[in-house]
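Entry for adenosine-5'-triphosphate complex. Fields follow.
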Amino acid sequence: MTQDRLGIFGGTFDPPHLGHMILAAEAADQLNLDHVLWMLSPTPPHKRQNIISDFEERAELVSACIEGESRFELSTLENERPGPHYTADTLKILKERFPDSKIVFLIGGDSLQYLPTWHEPQLVMERIDELGVMQRPGEVFDWKELKKILPDIDSKLRMIDAPLLEISSTEIRERVKSGHHYKYYLRDSVYRLILQKKYYLN
Ligand code: ATP
């Protein structure tokens, strides 16, 4: 029997957009993932100053976004404990819940750059089997620095081959607010929810 390969894709997803979908889908294909858990972050430690939409609203948006994709699943695990929600702790819980799975942690290149600044980054690396990274535009990685802090990065890193997409949730929120088009950056189900619930207007 082959070991189940579980992708963990964490984010604020405020809102989830096509960049997220393409990352998750390419990761699933290229890294042979059986499932991708979209790990919705209540208030990520690095975004504490920002105003983030309600967890329930974002959960609804993620559900709409991944609808019909049988390998994708929303996880609200981080909302089940009080913050701060460090990734190292989440991974510990996941390893206990899925002892027989290979854990493949998925991030965009911006997150890779900042990984050394996360809480206990070595523990994060220790608790995953592989690290799937999809680049974002304009990124140049400081490999020397990354390897200095995370020596096992070489053996675990899997670069995901995908077009560089200049799509971000911040940009979409700004577009909604300023009345510019944003429809084609999102799945239609997410677009319709944002319109219907009047999200991001102020
Ligand atoms: P914000 O603009 O609010 O910071 P975001 O668009 O970066 O949001 P997050 O929810 O913070 O979205 O991202 C979740 C994960 O998806 C992160 O690992 C991030 O690097 C990755 N990601 C987001 N957008 C892209 C993209 N266009 N290409 C590749 N990875 C992406």
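NOTE: The two ends are 52 Å apart (CA to CA).
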